[in-house]
TrEMBL record:
InterPro entries: Homeodomain-like_sf (IPR009057), HTH_TetR (IPR001647). Signal peptide: none annotated. This is AcrR family transcriptional regulator. Transmembrane segments: none annotated. It comes from the Bacteria. Keywords: DNA-binding. The keyword DNA-binding applies. Residues 1-26 are annotated as: Disordered. Residues 48-67 bind DNA. GO terms for molecular function: DNA binding. SUPFAM superfamilies: Homeodomain-like (SSF46689). It comes from Actinopolymorpha cephalotaxi.
């Protein structure tokens, strides 16, 4: 996978002069949304500053005014796409009134992760692949994923749990669901993943039963 920028992989921070200006921030958001929409359709393969400029209807120099190079633009675009995924998951498994269990909430969230728009799922999988392939350049794509997902997963935990316990259980859920997504993507073993998910849900049910 080749993700490059014609002006250098790290960009030139001196170009980014829009920070702090309401008008500049609005323009940055507009450009970012256009790039995000392109990524959701076409994925990360051959992503470059010039391709991003074409999708945003501007020039690469304008993008360098608002972003610190192609890596910064990619990081922010992936962050936005991941936010869409979390928003979908919140709608399905957010903490409602009525005493639904943690297992119920995770059960409701899982379909939103797998059945979401193919382009969105593909880009986020490719982003993690980049972090594994070139951690020196793309490790932030993986670290930021955890920083985004964990607060959401902690919100699914019983509110009376201490923060340390919420973090422990959320880390377990995150790692396990990531594994299920990878397994289903690479092997197509739906039955095996479904069996693993049932096992995870039983573990979560037992975790809550321990409080009773």
């Amino acid at each position: 996978m080749d993700v490059t920028g014609e002006e250098g992989s790290r960009g030139r921070a001196g170009y980014r002069r829009s920070t702090g200006s309401p008008r500049g921030e609005a323009k940055r958001r507009e450009l970012l949304e256009r790039v995000v929409d392109d990524l959701a359709v076409n994925g990360l393969v051959d992503f470059s500053l010039r391709r991003a400029a074409r999708s945003a209807g501007t020039t690469h120099k304008v993008l360098l005014y608002h972003f610190d190079g192609v890596d910064d633009l990619l990081r922010q675009a992936v962050f936005e796409l991941r936010g869409r995924r979390i928003g979908n998951a919140l709608a399905a498994g957010g903490v409602p009134a009525g005493g639904r269990t943690l297992a119920d909430r995770v059960r409701a969230v899982w379909p939103t992760l797998w059945e979401e728009e193919l382009g969105l799922r593909r880009v986020l999988d490719q982003a993690i692949g980049l972090a594994m392939y070139d951690p020196g350049r793309y490790s932030d794509l993986a670290r930021e994923a955890s920083r985004q997902y964990l607060p959401f997963l902690q919100s699914l935990c019983p509110p009376e749990w201490p923060d340390e316990r919420k973090l422990e259980i959320s880390q377990m859920i995150l790692a396990t669901l990531r594994g299920f997504l990878l397994e289903r993507l690479t092997t197509g073993d739906e039955a095996g993943v479904d069996a693993g998910l049932r096992g995870l849900l039983r573990v979560l049910e037992l975790e809550e039963l321990a409080d009773r």
